[in-house]
Structures are given as structure tokens and as C-alpha cells.
Design goal:
By secondary structure, the chain is an alpha/beta fold. It has helices spanning about 65-75, 80-95, 110-115, 130-145, 170-175, 190-195, 200-210, 220-225, 255-260, 270-275, 310-315, 320-325, 350-360; strands spanning about 10-15, 20-25, 35-40, 40-45, 100-105, 120-125, 155-160, 180-185, 230-235, 250-255, 280, 340-345, 365, 370-375. It has one domain (about 40-330): Metal-dependent hydrolases (TIM Barrel), CATH 3.20.20. About 30% of the residues lie in helices and about 20% in strands. The chain is globular and about 70 Å long.
């Protein structure tokens, strides 16, 4: 199932080194995988690896601000070890069908651990600050971080101005020229109320934290989204396509997080029909029971505004690769691209819904031409 092209029954994928060199509709092969579906490795477009140390996600609380406060307490508690959480998160994702991810780096730099992993990634350094002093320190930290960028071409460095309610507008302006950028925006109604009216639970939380002057924060979501035609917009639960005028940035939906907070069904089809690239992510273990993107896909095919299985697969692969700017190498099975593949047992059924379900527990995963996971393969040469 190449994604860019129709499914091929009995097909042969030809590999040389870490790349796909050919795709044949039939013929002999050195490895016979049996009755399986072969799909591109999934793209987990939005993660927070340094929050992977939760056995269970944090309770939603009475408000989103309560949940934010709980995350802050977790980050600052004695014994917190974000670097170890990063390693744990990587290990978990390596057991899934994902081969490429987008990670928000905040409390720990995930690039070093990712360099020795069997994953490709774009790592977005978070910049944040309600006060001028905090924002300036955050920008200096980003500049230093960029200078110490990983040397490997596998790990790309980017930037993430956290959110309009937490980040001074000049930090957004600084990030404007960076080609790799992710922004959390319009996740909750509370955020919109705070941005537009400076009231509600987020305003109360900032007061408790001692942030009394919020005049340097944005006054509307439009002030942010219309400045960043090339950034990835994460969540967008309280925006509609019209907010973006004529341009169409990539957006990321995190199904498990959405369900955890009991939110109204995400209008995925509406965004896709409007011409937006919809990618998918797992967010963090603070709001998701696991980091297994394959386990979060089935729900998108159920209920009102559901997506067909082929569209779900495209969102979880090629759309994510395009969002991260790495679609030349990732997101589909095509000669010249990296040999990042997931193998799902399907028996004799050629049933795409069964493939989507099977991606929760792939039989094997090939990453850059090497088996990262090869349970059940008779001849994983």
C-alpha cells in the first residue's frame, strides 16, 4: 500500500541499503512476508518525549488551566528526570509502527537520544515567556541550542513558540523565518477567552503564578495564524478553516488527547475538504495513555464526520511527512525514498480497515532498510 498510488496485490518492494529502489506488481522476492499488508512507517507528527514518565495521563481537572498547573508541578517536582523520560518515550515509540516523529523539546533536549535511536525526527525547541525576562532567556536558550545542533541529517532542528497565552508576540515574530516550526493554538475555549478577553481560568492561573502583566501576549488567534503560512498548527480545536484566509498550513490532530479531555468530535473531514493537510500525533503521556499512534487511528473511522481508511492511512503517513517537511524521504513507498515500512498481518483479507486496526501492533517494522522489529518473519533477511 504505497499511499502515493493504488494498493498492489502480491507486490514486491526492492531495496538497496536504506532506500527503496523499485516497486513491482509481481515476481520473485528474497523475503516472502506471507499474507500481510506493507505500508509506509507511520509519522507521529507531534510528541512531547520529555513528558513520557507518566504511568497514567493526568486527570483533566475542572479546567484546562488545572491540567496545565498539574504539568508544571510535575516538571518542577523533586526527582523529575526529563532526560530519562525522553529515553523511555523513544523506546516506547520504537515498539510501534512509527518511523518518523516531530518532538517538542522543552525540559530536555531529545536530539542526543534520538541520534542513537531507530527513528528519524524533527525536534522543535520550545520558546516561551509571559514576562520579558523569561522570553529573552528562552530566546537565548534557543540560539545556544541551535548552535549545538545535531550533526546527523536524520535529526532536524526547529522551533516551537509554545502558545499565544504563554509566549510574548515578539518570540512568535522571531520564529517566523524558521522553516521548521510548530505552534499549539486554540486547543480549548479557555485559551480563546483569555487571548480575546483576558479572563477565565488561564487568566487566574497566570495571576497565581505572579504574571500580572500580559499586555505583550497576542490579542486574537488570527494575529498568530495569519503570520505563519508554513508553520504546523497543533490542535486548532476552536478554529475553522476561514481563520486562515487563503493559505493552508499543516495541522496536527492528536486523537487520544482529544478523547482524554472529552472534547467534541474533531471535524477532520471539514479540514481535509477545505484543502488542509491533516497530520496526526500522540501528544504526551500527560494526556495520552500511550505513544502508539497506530492504536489511535481506528476512532477516526467511526461516528459522524468519519474518514475512510485510505484517508486515515494518508494522514498518518504522507500528510505527516509533508507537515514535517520530510516527504522527499518519508511517508510513502516509492523508489528513492527511505525503506521505512510497517508490516501488518491480514490473513487472506484485502481489507483496509483491518490494516488500520493492525497498525496498533505491527508484526514487523523496517527502518532505513533494517528490521527494527521482526517477530513472526520466517526469513527477515
Amino acid at each position: 500500500m504505497p499511499v502515493e498510488g493504488v494498493p498492489l496485490s502480491g507486490a514486491v518492494v526492492e531495496l538497496e541499503g536504506e532506500r527503496v529502489t523499485g516497486l513491482r506488481s509481481s515476481g520473485p522476492a528474497s523475503v516472502d512476508l506471507g499474507d500481510v499488508a506493507v505500508v509506509p512507517g507511520l509519522v507521529n507528527a507531534h510528541t512531547h518525549l520529555d513528558l513520557s514518565d507518566f504511568a497514567l495521563p493526568l486527570a483533566p481537572g475542572k479546567s484546562f488551566a488545572d491540567w496545565i498547573a498539574a504539568v508544571i508541578r510535575h516538571r518542577t517536582q523533586a526527582g523529575s528526570n526529563p532526560a530519562r523520560a525522553v529515553v523511555d518515550g523513544i523506546k516506547e515509540i520504537e515498539s510501534t509502527a512509527a518511523t518518523l516523529l516531530g518532538d517538542i523539546s522543552s525540559a530536555a533536549d531529545s536530539r542526543t537520544a534520538l541520534e542513537t535511536s531507530s527513528l528519524d525526527a524533527v525536534v522543535y525547541r520550545e520558546v516561551i515567556g509571559v514576562t520579558k525576562e523569561r522570553a529573552e532567556a528562552s530566546w537565548r536558550g534557543f540560539e545556544s541550542w541551535v548552535k549545538n545542533a545535531a550533526l546527523s541529517r536524520r535529526i532536524v532542528s526547529g522551533i516551537s513558540p509554545h502558545a499565544p497565552y504563554s509566549t510574548q508576540t515578539w518570540l512568535f515574530e522571531k520564529a517566523e523565518s524558521n522553516p521548521a516550526c510548530q505552534i499549539h493554538i486554540a486547543e480549548t475555549r479557555e485559551e480563546i477567552d483569555f487571548i480575546e478577553k483576558r479572563e477565565g481560568p488561564i487568566a487566574d492561573l497566570l495571576q497565581k503564578l505572579g504574571f500580572t502583566d500580559t499586555s505583550s501576549l497576542a490579542n486574537s488567534p488570527n494575529a498568530i495564524v495569519q503570520r505563519f503560512p508554513n508553520a504546523i498548527m497543533v490542535h486548532v480545536n476552536h478554529l475553522v478553516p476561514l481563520h486562515f484566509n487563503s493559505y493552508r498550513p499543516a495541522i496536527v490532530h492528536c486523537p487520544a488527547t482529544h478523547a482524554h479531555f472529552g472534547r467534541n468530535r474533531f471535524p477532520a473531514k471539514q479540514w481535509l475538504d477545505a484543502g488542509f493537510r491533516l497530520a496526526l500525533g500522540t501528544d504526551s503521556r500527560a494526556s495520552s495513555a500511550n505513544l502508539n499512534l497506530g492504536e489511535h487511528l481506528e476512532n477516526l473511522m467511526c461516528g459522524p464526520d468519519s474518514l475512510d481508511p485510505a484517508t486515515v492511512l494518508r494522514c498518518a503517513t504522507l500528510n505527516g511527512a509533508r507537515a514535517l517537511g520530510l516527504h522527499a524521504d518519508h511517508g510513502s513507498i516509492r523508489p528513492g525514498k527511505l525503506a521505512n515500512l510497517a508490516v501488518v498481518p491480514i490473513g487472506t483479507r484485502e481489507d483496509l480497515e483491518a490494516v488500520i486496526s493492525g497498525l496498533a501492533h505491527p508484526a514487523s517494522v523496517l527502518w532505513r532498510g533494517k528490521w527494527r522489529k521482526s517477530e513472526g518473519l520466517a526469513n527477515p533477511a
